[in-house]
């Protein structure tokens, strides 16, 4: 799925800017790393998407090999991360499956 703008740039909501650090100990820089590091896998978040704004989920790894899940949207040519957290065990297993066989 090709939805990420190029070059990748981010927009951070002022009210949300420290939420992931406080709640999950993930810095904005660390959250941004999963978009540039491979492999990462994108999934359309149909449940939380609306007619006005599509939401997506990405599974990826940071520079320090931390496995993260982020929910985001595209605003113009920028990625707006809504939330980011460590992958749950089921997500990690599926991520490892996809890494081994990306055609699943």
Brief summary of the model shown:
By secondary structure, this protein is α+β, with helices and mostly antiparallel strands. The chain is built from 3 helices and 4 strands. About 25% of the residues lie in helices and about 30% in strands.
Structure write-up:
The protein has one domain (19-100). 26% of the residues lie in helices and 28% in strands. The chain is built from 3 helices and 4 strands; from the N terminus they run ααββββα. The longest helix has 12 residues, at 89-100. The chain is globular, with a radius of gyration of 13 Å. The two termini are 13 Å apart. The model has no long low-confidence stretch (mean pLDDT 88).
Question: Can you lay out the helices and strands and say which pair or pack?
Answer:
Blueprint lengths: L18 H6 L3 H9 L4 E4 L10 E7 L5 E9 L2 E9 L2 H12 L4
Antiparallel strand pairs: 1-2, 2-3, 3-4
Q: Any idea what the radius of gyration is?
A: 13 Å
- Residue share in helix: 25-40%
The number of distinct structural domains comes to 1
Uncertain regions: pLDDT < 50 for 5+ in a row? none
Order of helices and strands: HHEEEEH
Number of helices, counting only DSSP H or I runs of 4 residues or more: 3
SSE class: alpha+beta
Number of strands: 4
């Amino acid at each position: 799925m090709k939805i990420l703008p190029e070059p990748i740039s981010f927009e951070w909501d002022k009210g949300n800017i420290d939420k992931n650090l406080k709640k999950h100990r993930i810095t904005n820089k660390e959250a941004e790393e999963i978009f540039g590091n491979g492999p990462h896998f994108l999934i359309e978040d149909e449940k939380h998407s609306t007619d006005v704004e599509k939401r997506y989920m990405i599974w990826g790894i940071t520079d320090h090999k931390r496995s993260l899940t982020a929910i985001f949207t595209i605003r113009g040519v920028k990625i707006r991360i809504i939330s980011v957290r460590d992958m749950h065990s089921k997500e990690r297993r599926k991520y490892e499956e996809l890494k081994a066989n990306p055609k699943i």
